[in-house]
Specification:
The chain has 240 residues and is of the alpha/beta class. It has helices spanning 14-25, 38-41, 58-72, 95-123, 144-164, 190-202, 209-220; strands at residues 5-9, 30-34, 48-52, 75-80, 126-131, 169-176, 230-233. The chain has a 7-stranded parallel sheet, with helices on both faces. β2, α2 (38-41) and β3 (48-52) form a beta-alpha-beta unit.
Length: 240
């Protein structure tokens, strides 16, 4: 069994679920966090703790990590994966949708990183993996707020990486292109959603959640003296 434990946010579905299944198979003790964990519970039962947590609630987020530390020892890997993508034109997007993306996609990453660092700095060891997006590298139509949150994740992560490098703590950014998951479910503009899905499926311009899970495993399995600063991963057929 691996030393300490790994936290995965948004671990009930999509990329998070694939990451959890992959790491569980190779012996990582896990704390899986999501608003609801009923689906992932059906597929993992050993060496894992589940908690229904909103990553925008700092106190609840921290409480569950500290509880897990009592069972597994220190948190050694933090995978800030929870995120939402709600597409809409910049002038039309409802305030609630914008706030939701900012809170989950950016604040959730900041909160998770800070909570984990409190333990990692004491132990002089740890790896933080923050899931951004190719939409954090370039802009896309109808992605304005989503892109803004993912650009923020990249800037924040790179700054933290430099800040904690001397303390033997690694920070990695994973920036996926199009992944065929349920991420688009929150988009209420039917025309935008339909256009996105038609382009994705007709061009076969997508990868799968397992591809993201494999990249996470690759980062974690590197020697502790090696930091993979960023992985940009996407389908070969995705041009942008």
């Amino acid at each position: 069994m691996k030393k300490g434990f790994t936290v995965i946010t948004g671990g009930n579905s999509g990329n998070g679920k694939a990451i959890a299944l992959s790491l569980n198979k190779i012996g990582y003790p896990l704390l899986i966090l999501d608003l609801d964990t009923k689906d992932i519970k059906k597929e993992i039962s050993k060496n894992v703790i589940f908690a229904n947590v909103d990553v925008t609630d700092y106190s609840s987020f921290e409480k569950e990590i500290r509880k897990a530390e009592k069972k597994f020892g220190p948190v050694v890997n933090m995978i800030n994966n929870a995120g939402v993508m709600i597409l809409e034109k910049a002038d039309l997007q409802p305030v609630e949708q914008m706030s939701n993306m900012i809170d989950i996609n950016f604040k959730g990453v900041v909160y998770g990183t800070q909570i984990a660092l409190k333990s990692m700095k004491k132990n002089k060891e740890g790896t933080i993996i923050n899931v951004s997006s190719i939409a954090g590298i370039k802009g896309f139509d109808s992605h304005s707020v989503y892109c803004g949150t993912k650009f923020a994740v990249r800037g924040y992560s790179e700054t933290v990486r430099a800040e904690v490098a001397s303390e033997n703590i690694r920070v990695t950014i994973i920036s996926p292109g199009v992944v065929k998951t349920n991420l688009l479910e929150g988009t209420t503009n039917k025309d935008i959603k339909k256009g996105y899905e038609e382009w994705r499926d007709e061009a076969k311009a997508f990868i799968h959640a397992n591809d993201i899970a494999n990249s996470i495993s690759y980062v974690l399995e590197q020697p502790k003296s090696v930091t993979i600063r960023e992985i940009v991963i996407g389908p070969t057929t995705q041009v942008e």
